[in-house]
Amino acid sequence: MTVQLGIPQVLGNRPRFEGLRDRYGRVATDLRLSLTDKCNLRCSYCMPAEGLPWLVKDAVLTAAEIVRLVGIGVDSLGVRELRLTGGEPLVRADVVEIVAALRAAHPELPIALTTNAVGLDRKAAPLKAAGLTRINISLDTLHPETFAQLTRRPFFDRVLAGIEAADAAGLGPIKINSVLMRGINDDGAADLLAWCLERGYELRFIEQMPLDADHGWTREGMVTAAEVRELLGERFRLSPDPRARDGAPAERFEVRRQDTDEILGTVGIIASVTEPFCADCKRTRLTAEGKVMSCLFSHEEVDLRELLRSGASDAEIASRWQDAMWLKPRAHGMDHTGLGAADFVQPDRTMSAIGG
Ligand SMILES: Nc1nc2c(ncn2[C@@H]2O[C@H](COP(=O)(O)OP(=O)(O)OP(=O)(O)O)[C@@H](O)[C@H]2O)c(=O)[nH]1
Ligand SMILES: C[S@@+](CC[C@H](N)C(=O)[O-])C[C@H]1O[C@@H](n2cnc3c(N)ncnc32)[C@H](O)[C@@H]1O
Ligand code: SF4
Ligand code: SF4
């Protein structure tokens, strides 16, 4: 069950410090902010086929509230990069205005967006003009029927058009996120990599995590990072990318053909389940309704919207945000790693409602 933490419940005696520190010595500098819980796809590993009521309009942070919170993060709490996500951030009608306002306030801040690319064909150029730095796009398959099966919507062509538009608009380096589901799209992993390499996109395979609405995830059923390396190894040769990982979820590999030394590009593997990276986590999250989630799997949420709307000062909001992050769990919402362990409890929220 999710616990809403208010100020009195939060540690009253945490040490005073700068920035978003936690009890395990980590410092969050990477803010992931959800613009909406709504989505126009229904990926089976994230949302239910039907249902899941949206937040009411008043509950969602306004553009001005978003700009204020990001300002507090950047100016007072050491946030150094921002990712806009969702739900599907492009379904928000004011997404371009939000990016423009954030860019005006923070000329040097890297601002990235994670999207399913439906509607991006029309929005890529305006987003670039508004100041978006780069974009990550989800694409699990190159087969329209498999796409429709996985996302429960027939929008494959629209996604391809969106990817092309993002590339043409200069929103690179374009990263493609792909979740492999056993028996559905795992046989297309090497084809998807070849397709991305030809176009200069960086593909990343993500291990499926237990954040689906249907609670259908099992540790045995998911496709592991080791299996991904094996699947790709049938056609390519992977070797560790010498660049520093620097706390990034993705472990990168250089990709070569079996018979040559020429590097064709890189591929990433985000192994949240089998090779977790929680010890180096730099992330803090804000949900679309302004709650801090210190970890993707947090069972505690700390409300900043209520403070915003009750006239609190920037310093009070910053302090509450620090309280929330001080309580960040060590890993996977617990004091140890273990998605699928006996004591792991899946959060009430789906990935779409957290902000993936
Ligand atoms: N367990 C875990 N997984 C995460 C976390 N952040 C991102 N991921 C996973 O990584 C996937 C890709 O995230 P993106 O939104 O593309 O961002 P990113 O990989 O952090 O961004 P880049 O800076 O472009 O590499 C997400 O869909 C999640 O599955 C995190 O804090 N914890
Ligand atoms: C929640 S979505 C939000 C942004 C946008 N709608 C999209 O799909 O890119 C962000 C990322 O989360 C990933 N994701 C969703 N559910 C997941 C799960 N259960 N396990 C791992 N990744 C998941 C998606 O593949 C996507 O790349
Ligand atoms: S993964 Fe993204 S596109 Fe798919 S249902 Fe979740 S929020 Fe929507
Ligand atoms: S599971 Fe939590 S602690 Fe681990 S990397 Fe993700 S957000 Fe960070």
Automatic annotation (TrEMBL):
Lineage: Bacteria, Bacillati, Actinomycetota, Actinomycetes, Micrococcales
Assembly and oligomerization: Monomer and homodimer.
Species name: Sinomonas terricola
Pfam family, one: Mob_synth_C
Coiled coil ranges: none
Cofactor field: [4Fe-4S] cluster
Keyword terms: 4Fe-4S, GTP-binding, Iron, Iron-sulfur, Lyase, Metal-binding, Molybdenum cofactor biosynthesis, Nucleotide-binding, S-adenosyl-L-methionine
Job description of the protein: Catalyzes the cyclization of GTP to (8S)-3',8-cyclo-7,8-dihydroguanosine 5'-triphosphate.
Record gene name: moaA
Protein name (record): GTP 3',8-cyclase
